[in-house]
Design brief:
alpha/beta, Rossmann fold, 7-stranded mixed β-sheet, 8 helices, 7 strands, 42% helix, 21% strand, disordered N terminus
Length: 239
C-alpha cells in the first residue's frame, strides 16, 4: 500500500488511499466547504448562465457541493490525474453541463481546451504544490479568466510566518487528527500525516500574506482571508 505522499497522483492505489483518508486528516474540510458554499450562495447564486471552474478538482467533491445547491451551472473541472478525473466523473455522473480537462496548473495558460469567462473559480488543496512564481502565474491566469464581478476562492494550506508558529500549527493539526480519529473510530492512524506533509518536497506552501499581496498586485479586489485555523485557510479575490 503506497503511503501518503510517497507515490504520485498517477498511481491508482495511492489516489484511492488518499481519498479514503482525506476526511480524517483534512479535518478542516467541512468548515472550509461550508464557507465556500455560503460565499457562493451570497455572491453567485442569483446570477444567470454561470460558468464555474474547479482547479485541481480531485474526485469532484467541491464541485459536487456547489451542484447540490445550483445544479444548472456550467462547470469545467481540471486535474492532472487520470484517476482523479475518473473518480470525479463517477461522483458527478448524474449532472450535465460538465467539461473535464486533464492538465496540471502550470500548463493551463497554454491549454487550448479551456475557454475563459468564468463567474466563479475555486481550488482546494492544490496551489500549495506550486512555488511562489508559479502561484503568482496561476493567480494571473485566474484573474484573466474571471468575468468582471467574478470571484476566486482558494481552500488550502499555508506557511506560518515563523518556525515557532509552524511547529505549533503542525502539532495542532496532529492533535485534531487524533481527536477526529477517536470520534469516528478510524481503523488507521493518520497522526503522522503532519510530519509527512512537512517533509515532502512537493509541498511548497507560502505565507498567507505573500499570496494575498501577490493577488492584490495582480489586480484582485477585494482580497480577504475568510478563514484560518493553523495552516488551513480560505481566501478570496474578486475582479
Amino acid at each position: 500500500m503506497p503511503e501518503y505522499g510517497v507515490n504520485t497522483w498517477t498511481d491508482e492505489e495511492f489516489v484511492g488511499n488518499y481519498l479514503t483518508g482525506a476526511d480524517i486528516f483534512q479535518v478542516d474540510r467541512p468548515n472550509m466547504i461550508n464557507i465556500m458554499k455560503s460565499f457562493y450562495i451570497h455572491f453567485m447564486f442569483n446570477k444567470s448562465n454561470k460558468k464555474i471552474l474547479d482547479l485541481g478538482c480531485g474526485d469532484g467533491i467541491m464541485t459536487h457541493e456547489i451542484l447540490k445547491i445550483d445544479p444548472e451551472i456550467s462547470t469545467t473541472l481540471v486535474d492532472g490525474s487520470d484517476d482523479m478525473l475518473k473518480h470525479a466523473k463517477l461522483r458527478l455522473a448524474e449532472y450535465e453541463r460538465l467539461t473535464y480537462i486533464k492538465s496540471i496548473l502550470q500548463q493551463l495558460p497554454d491549454n487550448k481546451e479551456l475557454k475563459g469567462g468564468f463567474d466563479f473559480i475555486f481550488s482546494s488543496m492544490v496551489i500549495h504544490h506550486l512555488n511562489m512564481k508559479e502561484k503568482t502565474d496561476i493567480f494571473k491566469f485566474i484573474y484573466n479568466n474571471l468575468k468582471p464581478g467574478g470571484y476566486f476562492i482558494n481552500l488550502d494550506v499555508v506557511l506560518c510566518p515563523n518556525a515557532a508558529l509552524e511547529k505549533w500549527a503542525l502539532e495542532l493539526w496532529r492533535q485534531r487528527i487524533k481527536a477526529h480519529q477517536q470520534k469516528v473510530s478510524a481503523n488507521k492512524d493518520y497522526t503522522n500525516i503532519p510530519d509527512k506533509y512537512k517533509k515532502l518536497e512537493e509541498n511548497i506552501p507560502d505565507t498567507l500574506d505573500d499570496q494575498l499581496n501577490a493577488m492584490r498586485e495582480i489586480g484582485f479586489k477585494p482580497v480577504d482571508c475568510l478563514y484560518k485555523y493553523g495552516i488551513f485557510t480560505v481566501f478570496v479575490g474578486g475582479r
